[in-house]
Please model this.
Amino acid sequence: MKPVIALVGRPNVGKSTLFNRLTQTRDAIVADFAGLTRDRHYGNGRQGRHEFIVIDTGGFEPDAGSGIFKEMAKQTRQAVAEADVVIFVVDAREGVSAQDHDIANELRRLGKPCLLVANKAEGMRDTARLAEFYELGFGEVHGISAAHGQGIRSLVELALEPLALPEPEDEVDEEEGPSKPIKLAVAGRPNVGKSTLINTWLGEERLVAFDLPGTTRDAISVPFERNGQRFELIDTAGLRRKGKVFEAIEKFSVVKTLQAIESANVVLLLIDATQGVTDQDAHIAGYVLESGRAVVIAINKWDAVDSYQREQVQRQIETRLAFLKFASLHFISAIKRQGLGPLWQAIAQAHKSATRKMSTPVLTRLLQEAVQFQAPKKAGMFRPKMRYAHQGGMNPPVIVIHGNSLEHVTEAYKRFLEGRFRKEFDLVGTPLRIEFKTQH
Ligand code: GDP
Ligand code: GDP
Model:
């Protein structure tokens, strides 16, 4: 599971700027999908070898009634509760304020590890200015500049160091072959039928479930086997084991959903046909896309909708979830046990696509054939020249194309290439990332 960092501080100290700085590597991917409203407060961060989830709490607004920060905003408290470490942001230029003290007291009460960070410290020689923040009682203050990107890397190192997380296992995993379980997360907003589906699955006799409480934090994972394929069900937002069955006993948590999605190989995205595709569904779908995980979409409660509603839901999927076009779509009833069989095939297929190995000679040949069929357009004086391609990663598959002037390749051409690669390698249910490396 990725560690979670919460940014806390009064308004205007630069939390959003820092958030953007920490999440920028992934933002570009999401920006491609206009029209998708996303919750800007949760993001995936990456700095060097560290990956983490970052929450921007948006800041404390003064309590209008009493005029003081007596109550930490509910949202902020929840973020702190969900976080492994808090970055407490103050303004290096303005110095310590009464609000900073209020926040400091509240954070102390909540008892999470905190790192005190003074933002807007670019060009500040006068470290005495920073020294005054010691009075907040969080030890050393770290000067950074979110706007100028100064001190960010060491900030992340400092924040994550105490958590002493093991190295990511992904790389080691790759060679292990087909006996490895497929990690599966069932994601969806409350009441779409996640627990019902999982209990139906685990109740089937052909499916051998065995208890093995997870050890990472409070996550639960259930290994089971189906048609000779091993699976591992990852605890998703709010799903908890109660005796023999799963129950949604917690309120929906974005962080838990994100973590489950991140640690899965395949995400089964569940949508409630009786409600249609809601904003929250679109948000979750956006996270799934951003994570790069393979995905299968299942529209649940198909038993409870009439033909008019069915048509409506289908249209909504086409418009609101257009960015998941690569995923296979299933109409199911968890309660009536309808349409569940094909889900397993789809999950296995998505996983196979996501972990497909593509050799450099084959990729290069396909690339050359594609260019012969249709060459990239000239941009001014430049004509992009594609030389060869190699695979840069799995789950999601990444194809790295090497050549010259590749920064001039259009989005449309990129999509054209993606289509060719998808077809050749029979990639269904996984995003495919294409990256360009230009030699100068
Ligand atoms: P938030 O309310 O805490 O999320 O703060 P914002 O990120 O919206 O930033 C508030 C203001 O501070 C904006 O005008 C930013 O441009 C500015 N700001 C943010 N980071 C820095 C920094 O590192 N240096 C300077 N000088 N200004 C910054
Ligand atoms: P969760 O919050 O996503 O785990 O959702 P639950 O599994 O608790 O289901 C929420 C409600 O939807 C319950 O009342 C279920 O009985 C109902 N439900 C789940 N699956 C189906 C289905 O396939 N058809 C119908 N009609 N209702 C369902």
Observations:
- The first helix runs from residue 15 to 31.
- The mean pLDDT is 81.
- The longest strand covers residues 385-393.
